[in-house]
Amino acid sequence: MFLTNRQPALQPSLLETLMHDRLRFAIQPIEPFGAPNLCRFEWFFRPQVRGMTTQQVFDELGDDEDSWALEARIVEHGLRWSAEKRCPVSLNLSPGAISVAACRHRLRELISRHCGRAPQAWWEITESWPLADPVEGRRTLELLRDAGQLIAFDDVASTSRLRDWVGSLGDPDVVKVDQSVVQRRPEALAELVDAIHGYGAMAVIEGVETYAGYLEARRSGASHWQGYYLATPEYVVDEHERQEY
User: Fold this and answer.
1) Per-residue pLDDT reduced to its tens digit, 31-47
2) DSSP for the chain?
3) Could you tell me the pTM of the whole model?
4) Average model confidence (pLDDT) across the chain
């Protein structure tokens, strides 16, 4: 066996890999109770990185100052799809991204380019990352609202957590109830939905996977629902090319 003196090539960073590879997305409907023809579609990022979930990807990126660029790229694809299909979407933004001025400037550019053709979007501020700097975060949300967009808080599991989010970022237009509530604490749904309505927001029940869960979600007084009982995600690759996984 011969040994080579060649040094191993440096591996690109995870962010570089994701920014240069074709991205994979998924769409899943969010349906109003009693109005199945008025669905909007949540636009998800699904990494093509072996053994890594979306959460693990962003955990690995951490507070990399350029990681917001990946979120902006994901949003751009979602807005383009929404404009082409004339379907309203729900897009994810992390609290970390909305607190970065460069991300806000990029969002302003994307909104001016796409939102005139795309239906009104929901912008879901995810709970999976640390809370944003409240001042910068509110500036970004003001930009979105001034453009006629709606602000949603994602994965809210308790009234205390909802109060924390409102205290940091102001009143939302939409609140998505974390799937753990309908699946493990359905008795808490009505109280949480009432609290959401108290802020003048619409309530969406996430994670509805059974008929029993659907009945609990409907009884809660929420206006929308989402989950595998409605539909499993449909995958979309980069320029909307479809691919089986």
Assistant:
1) 999 898 899 999 989 88
2) -PPP-PPPPPPPPHHHHHHHSPPEEEEEEEEETT-GGG-EEEEEE---STT--HHHHHHHHTT-TTTHHHHHHHHHHHHHHHHHHT--EEEEE-HHHHT-HHHHHHHHHHHHHHTTTSPPPEEEE-SSSPPPPHHHHHHHHHHHHHTT-EEEEEEE-SHHHHHHHHHHH---SEEEEPHHHHHH-GGGHHHHHHHHHHTT-EEEE----SHHHHHHHHHTT-SEE-STTT---EEEETTTB----
3) 0.87
4) 86
